[in-house]
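Fresh eyes needed here. I'd like your take on this protein's tokenised backbone:
***
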Amino acid sequence: MAKFFNEMTADGLAHTASTEIREHYREFCGWLQRQSAETIERKRAEADLTFRRVGITFAVYGDDAGTERLIPFDTIPRIIPAAEWKQLQTGLVQRVKALNMFIHDIYHEQNIIKAGIIPAEQIYQNAQYRPEMQGINVVSDIYAHIAGVDIVRAGQGEFYVLEDNLRVPSGVSYMLEDRKMMMRLFPELFARNKIAPVDHYPDMLLDNLRSVAPMGINDPTVVVMTPGMYNSAYFEHAFLAQQMGVELVEGKDLFVSDNTVFMRTTRGPKRVDVIYRRLDDDFLDPLAFRPDSSLGVPGLLSVYRAGRVTLANAIGTGVADDKSIYPYVPDMIKFYLSEEPVLNNVPTYQCRKKEDLEYTLSNLPDLVVKEVHGAGGYGMLVGPASTKAQIEDFRRRLIAKPDGYIAQPTLALSACPTYVENGIAPRHIDLRPFVLSGKTISMVPGGLTRVALQEGSLVVNSSQGGGTKDTWILEK
């Protein structure tokens, strides 16, 4: 079995009496050793029952077994010491700042293209590029107001950015509910450990959204816009609206009049200033994008172009989180900020390049291959875990459309002890912190830790059977 960094133990094994426990896990491990198996099992059952009652589910499209599933929750937390978090936070703020500058640049001066750092066709032929945004000024030059950056740990414990999610990043509700559940099940742990709080995220989000209201609006009306109850992340849309104390709306609840967006209410039309939208660009305005969309608001783009409503995230942010653009983010940081990246990318082969394609085709059994527009763990090949037939299928895809794929080495992702059917065993994890950009860049200490529950699996996505853990950032 490949060696991997274990978050809890220094020897990479599951927690046993003989393993060397890392310093920041010692208090928790001492507590865990004093708990009976029956107590832990009872608490796990209580968590499942509560999540089901509250309706914390995730819809899986095309799932014949049912439209909604409970995301498995593990009661062993992922713990990060203060010094490590400080490094991560510094790197995340740097990265998101550069990404926002990049998006502004490509829709205005295009300096990064003129400098020859990114080929023009990588921008203009990208499916997520929106020519309609060319020349549009947005408040504070912020495009990705909410970013979910996927972080993995490999090697001797080095952090890497695996992916930037800038369109409609999801998962923050599970971060909040996981923490609430742990505090409910094990209040004594929070009395014994100095764990940084995350429950103020909705307040931070609302303050952030209000800070980017159109010019001249002093008391902005903020709404959360959802595609509706059949969307896979509908629970989160409703949860965040409720937590922020704002209206949850669908496209049919909004209309445009006098170059202004209004919300229908029982007291008559009410102006809307900031829309935290949780649906993709294509569906926002049937007059500008997909004419068959019944989810959007006719005329929304014209109001947006006039600077009379703020959309979070902005239209056209997807070009910066596309996997074909990902390899250039370290160059963006150097170009826009004149700084060295604090967080490294995973080494990436761009299959549109002849030499990278040749290398990828020669090493498919050892690589992870991803569609540049893919998401959710779909459209990818994990070479070491794939059959010969699957590898040959991807070989044909790569040869037919090389510019549609990137490849990366198969990282031995770090693991955290996790409750499984036969006890406690290491399972691979990642981390999605949420970075808010407005007048300032801010984030709560923590994020959503996702765990691949199948032994040996590296795919943590909930749509692919992954679970979640509470993430503890220890305060000094």
Summary: Residues 28 and 259 are 57 Å apart (CA to CA). DSSP finds 13 helices and 23 strands in the chain. The longest helix spans residues 82-106. Confidence is low (pLDDT under 50) at residues 13-18, 61-66.
